[in-house]
Amino acid sequence: MVKAPEIGAKAAEDKVQLYALGFVLMIASATTGYDVMLINTSQQIKLWELYFPEVSDKNKLGILVNMFNIGSIISFFFTPYIADRWGRKFAITCGCLIMCLGGCLSAFCNGYGMFIAGRFVLGFGNSLAQMCSPLLLTEICHPQHRGPVTAIYNCLWNLGALVVSCIGWGTSTINNDWSWRTITFIQIIPSAVQLMFIYWIPESPRYLISKDRTDEALDMLATYHAGGDKNNATVQYEFQEIKETLLLDEPTNHAVRYSDFFKTKGNRWRLAIIISLGVISQYSGNAILSNYINVIYEGAGIHDQNQKLGITTGKTILDLSVTIAAAVSVDRFGRRPLFLTSICGMVGCFVCWTITSAVYENSNLQNAGAGYAQLVFIWLFGCFYDIGFSGLLVAYALEVLPFHLRAKGMMIMNITVQAILALSNQTNLLAWDNLPNHWNFMLFYTLWDTCELVFVYFFYVETNGPTLEQICKIFDGDDAAAHIDLHQVEKEIAQQHHEDDIAEVQAASLKGRGGEVIMWGRDARTRLLLMLEGSAAWTSWLPELDG
């Protein structure tokens, strides 16, 4: 399997510019994290509960939480077509504009109905930006940096969650509705920042080549991967590999259908992975920590508002630190080991959480030590989850999908995420309230996470090393990607330089004057070529060399 080519030192300055713009794309993940933690934080602000008395009804609270997911699911049906037809940047722009509208509706609402309408609009716009931002990010990255950069993308979910936790902790002291309206309005800022910088972000070279805009694609690769040198070996390798791999898929590209996921063994394998990513990332016990942490705190004997907000902020800081550490280590340890470590740790934490919860409940809620011990395992569970299913969720899905299925595959994964979120948001709270004991709820997730561990062990493959095009060989066999040899590309470039030099020398020789030959010759290599070509003009350099 061909390894990704190394980046040249001459491209360092453009690399900084590229990843500075890439950070703007990562903001989409922070937007999603902000919104999820927004509802979590709002539930811990008493004035929010007073303004929306409807949330005392568990079903209406579930609808409020789920309205964002419902909006996302509906727009997913349009997102792949927009991204593939008009480009990733256009889809991101539309999504950010819609989210700004939704944020204003929620922040300046006059009741429950207007608030959930704003959340629906937010969700509709979020899927456009949230799905297309990582698509564009992974397709403009230098192959040497693809792994950690795309893994860091989803880590910023925790940054968004941290921001709203900290701001909400501060605004909770305001004695009017702006205690919650402030954090609701601030959620439009990430989208506004993306809109400000989207013009300068380059379009995907794979999208450009698929639309026969090859010159623009080559310019993009040269500018950001090789300091503007179109003859750079890495640039030519990437350009040829993308172009030839897309040609292999050309019959499929003209009529991509969702049924294509069922046509080959490799595509069915991919489908199983991306659906499982959506399920495991949202239905491993983490959803109740994201949306109903207040219920968990109450169940552990913690009732003070300030204490709850402080614990939530601390946990979010820890989650952000762990996700970034795992993301920057993704190429060192590999994807598969991180996934297995993550899910094994989650199973272990749920075992301990189940035990401490049972001890706390059997003591008639008097064993404070067991109550606080639950919080320890909640924090540890979050750490293990972050190792695998925070940063790698999006990065791994993007890697296993080929270009012609990438937008639709991400749509399938995101629909799975939102559908499972909607399911868990409705069922987790009902199960918590209706099971005989709360520890029965923990026991269910202990068994469920064990099943997930078995699936990951047998189906998840290592994708560390190869380029996006070469990863296709893991699923579809050796003929699935173009066979481009980097060393051969370097030889071809050297040969082209050789021919250019000879042509230059011959043109100079026709002048018949040594002085003019010196002007035409570029360097000592050209002089040597002139001598080897048998031209008498090369002797014009001898006095210069003697001097």
Please write out the topology:
Layout: H1 12-42, H2 46-51, H3 58-76, H4 79-86, H5 88-107, H6 112-140, H7 146-171, H8 178-186, H9 189-197, H10 205-210, H11 214-225, H12 233-248, H13 250-253, H14 265-282, H15 286-291, H16 293-299, H17 305-328, H18 330-333, H19 335-362, H20 368-389, H21 392-400, H22 403-434, H23 438-459, H24 472-476, H25 486-509, H26 514-520, H27 524-532, H28 542-546
Helix pairs in contact: 1-6, 1-7, 1-9, 3-6, 3-22, 4-5, 4-22, 5-6, 5-8, 5-9, 6-22, 7-8, 7-17, 7-21, 11-12, 12-25, 14-22, 14-23, 17-20, 19-20, 19-23, 25-26, 25-27
In short:
The chain has 547 residues and is mainly alpha-helical. The chain contains 28 helices and no strands.
Structure description:
The protein has two domains: 9-480, MFS general substrate transporter like domains (Growth Hormone, Chain: A, Up-down Bundle), CATH 1.20.1250.20; 486-546, no CATH class. It contains 28 helices and no strands. The protein is mainly alpha-helical and 547 residues long.
Overall shape: it is: globular
Distance between the termini: 52 Å
Question: Radius of gyration, Cα only, in angstroms?
Answer: 28 Å
The count of helical stretches stands at: 28
Q: What is the H/E string?
A: HHHHHHHHHHHHHHHHHHHHHHHHHHHH
Unreliable stretches covering 5 or more consecutive residues? 513-522, 535-547
Beta content comes to under 5%
